[in-house]
Amino acid sequence: MKLLEDKILNESVVLNDEILKVDGFINHQVDPKLMKEIGEEFAEYFKDRGITKVATIESSGISPALMTALALGVPLIIMKKSPSNVMKTDLFHTEVVSFTKGSSYELTVSKSHISENDHVLIIDDFLANGEASTGAIRLVRKGNATIAGVGILIEKSFQAGRNKLNEAMIEVYSLARIESLKGGIIQFKKQEN
Ligand code: 5GP
């Protein structure tokens, strides 16, 4: 998506060879117009899949996921990060390793929001090693719901996440695919899909 790629080129900060900071338009300050366009793009791409719910992980995925849910006309589920000693019986829970924090957290969702009738689209800001996305997928499946696909704003294609999801037969649609951040230079992957 050219709009997002331009924004990344003009307004993001390469922290090191692996991490991109997008605090000015996604993670801290949010660009609502960009989020609206992103939501419409995901909705257009996934429109014929019979999606009943959009799901994301708090907190950075919420803005684009909400706009996607609005455009698809379905509810948004926000999966919560809680300390790992919280084990409530009305929640599905799974452990996720955080790429940016280097620690793990318990991801939870209420059993009352996911059922076997749901076909869920997962939206997240970044795809790195795929831990967050695969954790979200595990939770959806614990509720016997099915996965429609994963929509990602920024995929770092040099990390393992995309392959992990593809191997699990999950369709991934990434709006910007970064091939390299080496030397502080952002290089996008040539679009092949
Ligand atoms: P994964 O679980 O795929 O390894 O990492 C994805 C999660 O880690 C995303 O939800 C995102 O919050 C965070 N993340 C991964 N890479 C980056 C990055 O380069 N920049 C930022 N801001 N967050 C990232």
TrEMBL record:
It is an enzyme of class 2 (transferase). It is found in: Cytoplasm. It holds the Pfam family Pribosyltran. Pathway: Purine metabolism; XMP biosynthesis via salvage pathway; XMP from xanthine: step 1/1. It catalyses: XMP + diphosphate = xanthine + 5-phospho-alpha-D-ribose 1-diphosphate. Xanthine binds at L20, N27, K156. Its main location: cytoplasm. CDD domains: PRTases_typeI. GO terms for molecular function: xanthine phosphoribosyltransferase activity. Keywords: Cytoplasm, Glycosyltransferase, Purine salvage, Transferase. 5-phospho-alpha-D-ribose 1-diphosphate binds at A128, N129, G130, E131, A132. Residues 32-157 form the Phosphoribosyltransferase domain. Homodimer. Belongs to the purine/pyrimidine phosphoribosyltransferase family. Xpt subfamily. Converts the preformed base xanthine, a product of nucleic acid breakdown, to xanthosine 5'-monophosphate (XMP), so it can be reused for RNA or DNA synthesis. This is Xanthine phosphoribosyltransferase. The gene is xpt.
